[in-house]
Design a protein that fits this description.
mainly alpha, Four Helix Bundle (Hemerythrin (Met), subunit A), two-stranded antiparallel ribbon, 2 strands, elongated, binds heme C
Length: about 130
C-alpha cells in the first residue's frame, strides 16, 4: 500500500513538473534557421529582394505547420512577417519602405517567439 501511494505520488509529481513544451520537429528548426539566415542577409543588404522572397516561401511552410495547432498568435505573427517580407521584396531603393517592412517582419518573429518559443540553452529551443 505504501509503495502504491508512493508510486502514485511520483506519478502526480511527474505530471505536474513535466513541461508542456515539446521538442520541435527537425523541419521546424530548419525553417527557423533559414528565417534567421534570410533576416541576417537582408540586414546586411545582400540579395535583399531574393532573401525576402525566400523568406515568404519559408513562412508559408511555417504557417502550414502552425495552422494545425490553433494558435491565433502564431498565425497572426506569420502573416505579419509575411507582409513585411513582401514589402521588403519590392522596396528596391526606397529606404523607408525597407525599414517599415523590416519592422513588420521583426514584429512577427517576436510575436510568435514570445508566445511559443521556449529557450532551454544557447543552442536549443522548444515549442510551447
Ligand atoms: C509562428 C511562430 C514563429 C514565427 C512567425 C517565427 N518563429 Fe522562429 N521560432 C519559433 C519557435 C516555436 C522556435 C523554437 C523551436 C525551434 O527552434 O524550431 C523558433 C526558433 C527560432 C530560431 C532558433 C532556431 C534554432 O533552434 O537554432 C531562430 C533563429 C528563429 N526562430 C528565427 C526566426 C525569425 C528570423 C523569424 C521571423 C522572420 C521567426 N523565427 C518567426 C516560432 C516562430
Amino acid at each position: 500500500m505504501r509503495i502504491l501511494s508512493l508510486t502514485f505520488a511520483g506519478l502526480m509529481l511527474a505530471a505536474i513538473t513535466s513541461p508542456a513544451a515539446e521538442k520541435p520537429p527537425a523541419d521546424h528548426v530548419k525553417w527557423m534557421k533559414d528565417l534567421g539566415a534570410q533576416m541576417g542577409a537582408i540586414r546586411k543588404g545582400s540579395d535583399v529582394a531574393k532573401n525576402a522572397t525566400d523568406m515568404q516561401a519559408t513562412l508559408k511552410l511555417v504557417g502550414a505547420f502552425w495552422k494545425t495547432r490553433s494558435s491565433d498568435i502564431a498565425m497572426k505573427s506569420c502573416g505579419e512577417s509575411f507582409k513585411g517580407a513582401a514589402a521588403v521584396a519590392k522596396a528596391g531603393d526606397d529606404k523607408e519602405a525597407l525599414a517599415a517592412g523590416m519592422k513588420m517582419i521583426g514584429a512577427g518573429c517576436k510575436g510568435c517567439h514570445d508566445a511559443h518559443r521556449e529557450k532551454i540553452s544557447d543552442t536549443e529551443n522548444l515549442i510551447k
